[in-house]
Each structure stands twice: as structure tokens, then as C-alpha cells.
Design goal:
- The protein is mainly alpha-helical.
- The chain is 58% helix and 5% strand.
- It has two domains: 114 residues, Winged helix-like DNA-binding domain superfamily/Winged helix DNA-binding domain (Arc Repressor Mutant, subunit A, Orthogonal Bundle); 45 residues, no CATH class.
- Strands 1-3-2 form a three-stranded antiparallel sheet.
- The longest helix is centred in the C-terminal third of the chain and has 19 residues.
């Protein structure tokens, strides 16, 4: 993904990794906390804010998934995460930046990368899709997706939820209809 954020100071992947770790160092954090932090840093550096916040959020989601695979953060509550002891050590040892060259030191990160490279689960999960569809009918939000963001089931659940929403909108928006 080539974009304006790839060329901006404070928005390169190592900077994004630092933002996620720093924001979660003292409390449970969210991607919104990281975006707010990065915008503050840009303001202090007298740089304009990113034009596309959705793209920044997507890049932060990728970083969050990488840090989780490396065991540097753990999920905490809906859409939140917190730093692990390993994450604290990495932050102390590398205060100027963390990138994939450091993450590959951890066997679970290498294993996750190898699994993803091998395609993970090539077949869509009908169970996850159906659960997502049922979740929309039950009035649950897209953010209620119970699957880790870096897994196929996350996308399958999201696709089911989205299809149910689309079906509901085309039938008048009544969530009780199937």
C-alpha cells in the first residue's frame, strides 16, 4: 500500500509500532487513542494531520496484528489492547523504533508469518459467516466481531454481518427478517 502516510514523518511503520506500544504502556488503549497520539505528535512537529484517517486506521490495525503475533500486546476489551511484559522490554530496549526485523526474533511471530504465507485457512468458514449474519440480526455491531483481526474467521464474520445488513436494508431494514 503506497500512500501519503508512507512518506510522512512520524507515520512510518516503526513509528506506528511505537505509538501502539506507548499508548498501551500505561493502560488499555485503542486505535483511536493511537490516532489521537499521532495527530498530537504531528501538530507538535508542525506537520499537517493525515488526510485519510481511514487509511491510517487500517495501517494501525496491521501494526496491531503484527505486535499481537509477536506477543508484544494482548487484546483487552472490545477493540482495545494492552502491552505485555515482552512489549515493555522491547519498548525499553528500542525506544527509537521497532520494526519487523525485531519481531522476527520471536518464534510465534515467525510461525504466524509462515502460516499466513502458506495461506492459513484457504476455505471460508461457513460457521463464522453464519455467526456474523446472525449477529447483525441480533442487533450486534460490526465491532463485536469476536475473531482476531489477522485471521480468516474475522473477515468471514464481517462478510456475514455485512451481507445481513445489506439484506436487511434491501428488505426495509427490519432486523427480525431473515
Amino acid at each position: 500500500m503506497s500512500s501519503e502516510t508512507d512518506e510522512r514523518p512520524l507515520l512510518h511503520e516503526p513509528d506506528l509500532m511505537l505509538a501502539v506500544l506507548r499508548m498501551s504502556a500505561g493502560r488499555r488503549a485503542t486505535l483511536d487513542d493511537c490516532i489521537h497520539h499521532l495527530r498530537s505528535l504531528l501538530r507538535m512537529a508542525q506537520e499537517p494531520p493525515p488526510a485519510d484517517l481511514e487509511e491510517l486506521r487500517l495501517r494501525l490495525e496491521e501494526v496491531e496484528a503484527k505486535l499481537a503475533r509477536a506477543g508484544l500486546i494482548l487484546p483487552a476489551g472490545p477493540e482495545g489492547f494492552e502491552i505485555t511484559d515482552r512489549g515493555r522490554r522491547m519498548l525499553e530496549e528500542h525506544p527509537d523504533g521497532i520494526d519487523e526485523s525485531l519481531l522476527v526474533r520471536f518464534p510465534e511471530y515467525r510461525a504466524a508469518v509462515a502460516e499466513r504465507a502458506a495461506g492459513g485457512s484457504p476455505e471460508p468458514s461457513a460457521a463464522a459467516y453464519d455467526a456474523g449474519y446472525a449477529a447483525w440480526l441480533a442487533g450486534r455491531a460490526l465491532s463485536d466481531n469476536p475473531h482476531p483481526r489477522d485471521r480468516r474467521d474475522h473477515l468471514d464474520w464481517q462478510n456475514g454481518w455485512s451481507q445481513a445488513r445489506d439484506d436487511g436494508l434491501s428488505s426495509g431494514g427490519d432486523r427480525s427478517r431473515s
